[in-house]
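Milestone 3.1: sequence recovery, worked example.
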């Protein structure tokens, strides 16, 4: 009886793992060294770094 429960549990876990990975989508790689266009943490709305604004 113990082997039956272990096999059933293993089959359920394997099935859940396969179903969980079935909706995977391709990953779009972006180089970390490139600067993206647009606003950032220290830039304004235009995406420019402004030191002094008159």
């Amino acid at each position: 009886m113990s082997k039956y429960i272990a096999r059933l549990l293993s089959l359920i876990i394997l099935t859940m793992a396969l179903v969980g990975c079935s909706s995977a989508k391709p990953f779009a790689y972006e180089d970390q060294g490139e600067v993206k266009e647009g606003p950032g943490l220290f830039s304004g709305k235009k995406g420019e770094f402004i030191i002094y604004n008159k």
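Helices lie at 2-20. The chain has a mean pLDDT of 80.
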